[in-house]
Structure formats: structure tokens, C-alpha cells
Amino acid sequence: MTLLHRCAWCGTDPLYVTYHDTEWGVPEYDARALWEKLALDGFQAGLAWITILRKRESLRAAFDGFDPEKVARYGDADRARLLADPGIIRSRAKIDSTIRGAQVWLDIREAGEDFSAWLWSFVDGRPIQDSPLGLSQSDASVSMAKALKSRGFNFCGPVIVYAFMQATGMVNDHVPSCFRCDEVRAMGAP
Q: Structural domain tally of the chain?
């Protein structure tokens, strides 16, 4: 039996291990999926990522699969429904931020911009490889956070944005000894 070496942060929780082994760091280019991950990272603010992973399916169900067209139209009844849902993070500010984020996402699309291409432009369209380990932010995450805020997004400071960049493969922060490091590096090769 071969022992796989992983990044230490995922520990041994099966949900965390599966997330690490199949999703974290994989380059994501789908604009809707990127918005969902940005919204989920916003829900994480002040919480552990494992909390979000445990509630992710409930969050997806509560927010209509993170369909920006639907979420952007949420009104007071939807806010009340979400605030009463024990399966999600019941923070009014985070719920409102997600609704506002859907509206901004639609504004960007209606202006003829590609949300994915815009986000990836902060890393010149390809994953950053071999970033210094242990960073909680980078020049790219600081720039992206400022740009997201200027567009009207909330819960997107540099630390949250850096975590988003790691999760979506804009930064490959798998440690060199992790079995996923080279696999993810190959996914980001031109």
C-alpha cells in the first residue's frame, strides 16, 4: 500500500480529504462556478472552511444552485426564508452579500464582460506556480479584492480572495511533497 502525502491543512476528515484530492487548486474557468466559489468563500469569513464544506449542499439548495439569474431577484421573502434555514450560515450580511454579488455578476455579463476572463486576468490568465508557502495574500489577491469591491462585491478582502484563488487554481499552493502538486501544475500548463 502506497501512502499518499497531502497538504497538512486537510487533516484526516474524509470531506476535507476529498475536497483536497479532487477540487482544491484545480483551475476553474466557468464564470458561474467562479461566482459560486466566491460566494462560498464570503460565507466562510470568520469560520473554518470545513463548516462551509459541511453546509455546501444546503447552501446550494437554498440559493437555487447559485444561479445568478434567480439569486439576483431575491426579495424580502427570500431573505426571511434564508435567515430561517438552519442548514446554512444565517448571517444577514452574508446573505445580502450573496444576493448583491449575483446582481453584480449579471451587471458584468450584461456589460459584455466575461467574469472568468476578468478574474483570471489578475494572474495573467494562468495559475501562479511555486508561490511562497504560507502566504495569506499576494499582490494579485490585493488587486483582485480592490477590483471586486469597486464593482460592488462584499466579503472579498485580500485574505478571502487569496483563499478563493487557491481553491479555483489561480494559485497552486499544494506543498511540493503533496501528490496533487504536480497533477495540479499539469492542469495549469499552457
A: 1
- In three-state secondary structure terms, 85 is coil
Phi/psi of residue 114, nearest 5 degrees: -100, 115
Phi, psi torsion values for 64, nearest 5 degrees: 50, 45
The predicted-structure confidence for 72-101, as pLDDT tens digits, reads as follows 999 999 999 999 999 999 999 999 999 999
Q: Which domain does 55 fall in, by range? A: 28-174
- Does any domain span residue 11? no
pTM (predicted TM-score): 0.94
Contact call for residues 66 and 99 (beta carbons, < 8 A):
no
Q: What CATH number does the domain containing 36 carry?
A: 1.10.340.30
**8 Å CB contact between 59 and 89:** yes
Give me the phi and psi of 128, to 5 degrees please.
-75, 125
Q: What angle do CA 149, 151, 155 make, to 5 degrees?
A: 35
18 falls within a domain = no
